[in-house]
Amino acid sequence: FPVTIKINKSDGVIPGVVSLGGVFTRGGVAAEDTVVGLQGGLVDIKGSRVDIGGRIDTRGSDSLNGGADQLGIGGAGGSINIEGATIVLSRDLISTGGRGISTLSGIGGGGGFITMTGDVELNSRVSDLTTIVVNTRGGNGLGIGDEGPGGAISFFGKITGTPTTSNILDLQYGSGEARLGDAAADTITLGTLITAADDAGSTGSLVINGTLNVDTLTTFGRGYGISILGNGSQITQNVSFLNTGLVALGSAGGIVTG
């Protein structure tokens, strides 16, 4: 069974400051009598302030090789839920599905859900680690097997980069959806926002409800959609929307680029 880590989630607990290094609940090696990879474990943390100093990795494991007779099925990613008035992320959040491996064919495991509830600060605390990756992509399939579905990424609150350390947010969600903010007040202030992975599996959607203030918006010629809905959004550098899915500015009619 997958490991579950819960901090300050019991009834009646008044959460204080939580400070952690890395958290790893990756799925283990699949049992010999099964061709299904193991699911990553749930990470569920609540605090008045939550400071994560290392990577959180809840990815599912790859399947064993099903040979010529059985499909291999990758394990699902475990979900990551963090809640706090302030959440500091110093490293990546990874909740990807495992690969389906088989001589016959393989089906990738689904990505987990990553949910941040509170104002998020990106700060690696070192000048040479400038990018924080949030990844819920499904695992790769083989042969006629499909890639696993991407999980949802949800940020409910502000997102602020640190110019001297981590000022780039890299979102990777495959066929899933990434949602930044509930309303315009949930501002996203970054040097660069990378809108998806440069991969054929990027077919989901990015919805930005908060006011977006970035120097650079990076897009790729893949099938995903982008909606920028926060009034007053500004992108300093000229942007070409290379993605081939939906592009919607919606209520962000006052968006300024270049």
End-to-end separation: 51 Å
What letter string, H or E per element, gives the SSE order? EEEEEEEEEEEEEEEEEEEEEEE
Task: Tell me roughly what share of residues is in helical segments.
Answer: under 10%
Give the number of helices.
0
| Main sheet: strands, sense, barrel | 21 strands, parallel
Q: Could you tell me the strand content as a percent range?
A: 35-45%
**Alpha-beta content class:** mainly beta
Backbone shape:
globular
Describe what you observe in this structure.
This protein is mostly beta strands and 258 residues long. The chain is built from no helices and 23 strands. The chain is globular. The model has no long low-confidence stretch (mean pLDDT 90).
Quick synopsis:
By secondary structure, the protein is mainly β.
List the helices and strands and how they pair.
Elements: E1 5-7, E2 17-20, E3 23-24, E4 43-46, E5 49-52, E6 56-57, E7 72-73, E8 80-89, E9 93-94, E10 106-107, E11 114-122, E12 131-135, E13 153-156, E14 159-160, E15 168-172, E16 177-180, E17 188-194, E18 205-208, E19 212-218, E20 225-228, E21 234-235, E22 247-248, E23 256-257
Parallel strand pairs: 1-4, 2-5, 3-6, 4-8, 5-8, 6-9, 7-10, 8-11, 9-12, 11-13, 11-14, 12-15, 13-16, 14-17, 15-17, 16-18, 17-19, 18-20, 19-21, 20-22, 21-23
What attributes does this structure have?
23 strands, 21-stranded parallel β-sheet, two-stranded parallel sheet, 258 residues, mainly beta
